[in-house]
Amino acid sequence: MAPPPVIRLHPDDGVVIARATLLPGVQVAEGVVATMRIPAGHKVAIRPHAVGQPVIRYGQIIGFATVPIAPGEQVHVHNIGMGDFAKDYAYGEAATPTQYVDPPATFQGIRRPDGRVATRNYIGILTSVNCSAHVAGVVADAFKRNPWTGADPLADFPNVDGVVALTHKTGCGMSGGEPLALLRRTLGGYARHVNFSHVIVLGLGCEVNQIGGLMEEQRLAGRLRTLDIQDAGGSRKTVAAGIDFVRESLTDSNKVHRETVPASDLIVALQCGGSDGYSGVSANPALGAASDLVVRNGGSVILSETPETYGAEHLLTRRATSREVGEKLVGLMRWWEEYTKREGAEMNTNPSPGNKAGGLTTILEKSLGAMAKCGSTNLVDVLQYAEQLKIRGFNFMDTPGYDPVAATGQVAGGANLVCFTTGRGSVFGCKPAPSIKLATNTPMFKHIEDDMDVNCGTILDGDETVQQCGARIFDLILRVASGEPTKSEAFDFGSAEFAPWVLGATM
Question: Engineered SS bond to 157: which of 126, 254, 354, 450, CB 3.0-4.6 Å?
Answer without folding.
Answer: 254
